[in-house]
Each structure stands twice: as C-alpha cells, then as structure tokens.
Amino acid sequence: MNETKKFKNKTELAYKAFFIIGLVFFLIGQVIISKGNDFVYAQEPIDFAHWFLLIGVVLLIPQVVSFPKKIFSLIGIPLTIIGITCIIGMCVLDFLWWSFPNEEMRNEFTNHISNVPSIWKPFITIGPSSKIFNLGLLILSFNYFQNNKTGIVLILIANLILWHIIPSPFRLISGYAITLIGFSLIFVRNRSKKIN
C-alpha cells in the first residue's frame, strides 16, 4: 500500500514537472515567434518556434487530465484539451507554411485553406488566439483557490493580458511568463503543504 502511494506521489510530481517544462517550452516558442515571420521562416533545419509550441502543449496533457476531481476540472479540462488540440493543428499548418520555399507558395496555400472553414476557424482563428486554452488553464487553477490565491491572481492577470484587456508590450511573452510563474507558485506551495 505504501509503495502504491509512493508511486502515485512520484507520478503526480512528474506530471507537474512536465506541465511546468511544457509552459517553459511554450514560452520559448512565443519568444521566437515574436521575432517575426521572416525570422521564423528562415529557421534551419526545423521550425524551432512551432516545435517548441507543439512539444510544450503536449507536455501539459498528463497534468491537465490529472487535475483534482472538482467542479472546476469538469469545465477546465475539456476547454484546455480543446485549446491544446487547436494549437497542435495550428502548429501543423505552420510547419507547412515554413516548408514552402517562397512567399508566393505560402500565399497560394493561405488562399486555399482560408476558404475551408473547418480548417481555418479552429486552427487559425481559434488556435493562435488561444482564448479557449487560456480560459481552461485559468479555470483549472481555481482548484487551488484555498491553497494559493497569489498564483491564481497571477494567472488571472496573465489571461487579462492575453485577452487584450490589460495592454502590455510583447503580450504573448508577458502573458505566458506570468502564467508560468502562477502555476509554479501553485504547484510548489501545494507540494510543500502536502509534505507538512
């Protein structure tokens, strides 16, 4: 029984570590993207920006589906998974844009998929804005309201920045940096309370 509990604790710790590493990767991807399309398209030998985004959101999944079984998780988990799916689809399309050797081919591809709402709306309109993704993460943070109000307030501020409500230079970088700090505080404080 004790071994089972130890295994469960190690698994929970690993999921939280993957989650934080995932947010770090996602933030690195946003930093690279902030340098502009020309910089992103010139990356060799791979599109580092979107690989960081893709790996980042995939690393979030184990923790996202393991949040405490509370009312907030019933809403937050599906929203976050939908947001992750949209971001993955966006990354796949961005890999295709990156693969084209010139702007003319990119424009032709853009004209084609912009006329396909089942691709354009979820993966280009919703995916990059990440409103569903960020709302899901915010709702999931409410699971820790009693343990860490500071972390939740930071994630709320990050969402207000990401949703253009609080103006900020480098909106995506500052928003995801604050999200990373908020969840780091939540997980560290929650872990220390369990140990005590």
* Strand element count: 0
As a percent range, the share of helical residues equals over 70%
Would you identify the regions where 5 or more consecutive residues have pLDDT less than 50? Answer: none
Number of domains: 1
Cα-atom Rg, whole angstroms?
18 Å
The helix-and-strand class reads: mainly alpha
With helices defined by DSSP (H or I, 4 residues minimum), what is the helix count?
A: 9
Shape: elongated
Largest sheet: none
Distance between the termini: 21 Å
Order of helices and strands: HHHHHHHHH
Strand content: under 5%
Mean pLDDT: 92
Please give a structural write-up:
With 196 residues, the chain is mainly alpha-helical. It has one domain. It contains 9 helices and no strands. The protein has helices at 2-33, 37-41, 48-64, 71-99, 103-113, 117-129, 131-141, 149-162, 171-195. The chain is elongated. The chain starts with a helix and ends with a helix. The mean pLDDT is 92.
